[in-house]
Amino acid sequence: MHTLAPLWLWSVFIVFVLLALFVDFVVLKKQGAHEVTVPEAIRWSAAWVALSLAFNVLLWWAFAQDQGSAVAHTKAVEFLTGYLIEKSLAVDNIFVFLMIFTYFSVPAAYQKRVLMIGILGAIVLRTVMILVGGWLLAQFHWILYLFGAFLILTGVKMWWAAGKESDLDDNPVLKLLRRLLPVSHDYDGEKFF
Q1: How far is CA 22 from CA 120, 128, 150, 170, 193, in A?
Q2: Is residue 72 within 8 Å of residue 93, measured between CB atoms?
């Protein structure tokens, strides 16, 4: 049984994500630096959730036309499950962003822009990781055990560090970035570089 989505649906999904990012960046540019209010954040969140649910309906319809309602139901539930898991993990990321914004004293007016750049970077890095990881798994099946060991080691390290204050001044990645890049300690409007 063929259960991959048709090529046109993948195209719609990719165009949708790129269009959503474009709209978000254009709206961000037009609004300029401003503090996002709670009602504004709720409206944006509701809009993105509604669009994701609409895509799930389109996904169900595409599979129902091509492979029947049983496969369509399974794929729609898989998408919704993945979406809900991703949404719940995003809530966890909020605390990480708050910690970073607080540490670097990012003014509230610039936080949305910093967040958008971070999301864009995460999308690019995830895409690369998925493509490279998928290729590696296809070439070397044993690497799955290596990935599993890495996840277990990371989990143990996170458990061990739970509750301890993290000092970003001693972070080796930040130290390296400060040595290699012209990092400013002051803000110059909305400029990143």
Answers
A1: 11, 20, 35, 36, 21
A2: no
